[in-house]
Amino acid sequence: MWLWTVGFALVAYVTYKLTSLSRLPPGPKGLPILGNALDIPLNGLFLKLDAWKQDHGEIYALNAAGQKILVLTTAKAAADVLDRISGSCSDRPKFIMMGEYMTGGLMVSTLSHGDRWRRMRRIVHEGFNIRAAEAYYSMQEEEAGRLVRVLLEQPRVELGVVRQRAAASIIWRALYDAPSLFQSQQVEERVNHMNEILDALLSSAMPLAYMVELIPALRYVPTSLAKWKQYGERFFKDTDEFFENLYKEGKESKGDGSKAKGFAASTEEACKEFGVSQQEAAWTAGTLFGAGAETTVGAVHFFCLAMLLHPEAMKTAQKQIDEVCGKNPPTFKDRERLPYLQALLRETMRWRPSVPASIPHVACEDFHYKEWVIPKGTMCIGNIWSINRDPEFFPEPEKFRPERYLDEKGQLRPSLPGYHDDILAYGHGRRICPGRDFANNTVYVEMAYLLWAFDIEKAKDANGKDIVPNDMDFSDKGLTVYVHLRILLYRVVLTSCPGTRRNSQQCSSPGRKTCLNSCPLSDGRAEK
Ligand code: HEM
């Protein structure tokens, strides 16, 4: 009898598995064995996923040489799967080289959904939730002021480079309570080293970078025979030392009473409460820099692009800023009275999300969605680019229209029904970006200061004609994208000194210095 029972259970299990496998939604046809692997591009994946949406709709499946991938392309499908059954699909893909050898399983963004990830994520939440993020307001205003000053003082400076430094400086100071990158050579060197670490990690995650990803058994090759293992272990040791030193210094910094402590110092109690070791906390901080710098730069970059292509939106925002702030630079206190600027931020992040395809989630168990059964191990990608173009939520999605977020009185409309806010650029579910409030603050204050101080105009070619950037010529940095800087040529034209933008003449170089001495930015506020 028991033989029958076991046999029956086995048949039921195998049938269930087989039907599970065959119940993924249909998707583009692929080759035998390789499936769609050869059709999945290394660059511009989000555009390909969006193109497939035209034929396969809101949810479809791909097969990359055996790896099943579920693609979600509408706001509703992404919310149904990634938010509402988040517990079933909150793992991350496993990268042996990056996740294990190079980072010792300590990078919160790549960790599996488990105890360590949960504890590390708790301290990120403590340090960067919506309330905690307020503690950084004055530092963010200070850095935005510096961004404007550098652009004022060095008329030929490359805006992209300065912005990159400003965003790096903001997140660095928030993490380690260090001096501004604009003021400290040591911070600059450390930030450069941090960027080298991130580049190395990103390259290690590229397909075919390391054979061990394809043939996991290679991990059992003795270290003395495997150069890649030696490199990975050395990289981990050096990076671990670097992160822990930064963290220790940051922890010792207690702020000066008026400004916020950095993440390292302010989360000391939370680390004790949630059982997070010093090493785990140090790696969390290092990972946050990686997650928070490029992404924010990307968002402000696309804002500049939007201003070049939609000067009418720039003028409307400037008019409101002038009315509300006058001669003083905009602050966080003014934000509620600047609904158009807030709408501009939402529309920029919708129109050109700097992370256009979310980091893949992975199903930690089989789960059901509609008539489909999604097997454990399936990668689930919310294609943010497509989600942000869902016509049900965003009519005429290709149009850049900040007004879509405003009511007839020009005030912000309530958030999208069923969503915590209007910005869908931060991913979903349990893996949603934990730095989103801090990021929104950085982007807001940089946009506000840039618009308050400058007009952003297209550069001219040799014949004096406007150079119009191609807003679809993307350069892909793995997770973040930019419109190619080669063609994003713009100049920031100072039509007046800040605060009186409307009246003054364009400054000449020596006059600019004089102007700076009397402008509100040099009253000590920006250089505290
Ligand atoms: C405009 C700026 C930013 C954008 C567009 C952005 C976007 C995203 C997206 C799309 C994800 C993946 C979410 C998912 O898997 O569903 C993510 C994850 C993450 N972000 Fe952000 N982010 C930004 C800024 C920041 C900042 C400033 C921080 C840190 C203070 C941060 C920390 C993280 C971390 C740690 C994760 C991984 C979460 C996890 O795996 O549990 N991000 N972000």
From TrEMBL:
Pfam families (UniProt xref): p450
Keyword check for Transmembrane: yes
Cofactors demanded by this protein: heme
Single GO molecular function: oxidoreductase activity, acting on paired donors, with incorporation or reduction of molecular oxygen
Location in or out of the cell: Membrane
Family: Belongs to the cytochrome P450 family.
Protein name listed in UniProt: Cytochrome P450
